[in-house]
Amino acid sequence: MVTIGSGAEREIDDIQLSRYACYLIVQNSDPRKKVVALGQSYFAVKTRQQELIENFEELDEDTKRLAIRKEMIEHNKQLVAAAKDAGVETTKDYAIFQNYGYKGLYGGLGAKDIHEKKGLKKSQKILDHMGYEELAANLFRATQTEAKLRRDNIQDKAEANQTHYNVGKEVRDTIKRLGGTMPEALPTPEKSIQQIEREKIKL
Q1: Residue 103 class from Cβ within 10 Å (0-12 exposed, 13-18 middle, 19+ buried)?
Q2: Does 85 share its domain with 126?
Q3: Are residues 63 and 23 part of one domain?
Q4: What is the pTM for the complete model shown?
């Protein structure tokens, strides 16, 4: 029901649109409207992601790293939200929560240990100094932890931490079963994500 000019209410149809119909409407609407601008940005990003997926094997190492790092940024936001719903509330809580995930994936190494192993400065972020294979393992850890926290409706901080550790270890065990290289043994790229981005801008 919607309110009309006279103050009365009138029933209107509720219409379900296909994804393609939404795309056409958004692309042909006024981008000055906030909802339209957001919609156009959404479809632009998703189109680019699909292009990257379809041509992923043809991409060079640096482009693969950039693509996965951007995905990691988005999925970390979702992981933060899921962790918060599970009782991980403060910045310190989240740092501890993240450490559990790293320890599971890196065979007991926490964020500080990984930082030192990579020879990074205090201000440098670990994720900005990973190759695409290591980034992909961390992306899988993040997406699966978020999904499990929500699926199991976890409401306890300690349980959330243990879940992150368990998922990280599962990813590690999978890499081991496949005969892959453990994340901590993978080489640290010479260029950071920021350096690659600056080079891409110059080009």
Answers
A1: buried
A2: yes
A3: no
A4: 0.72
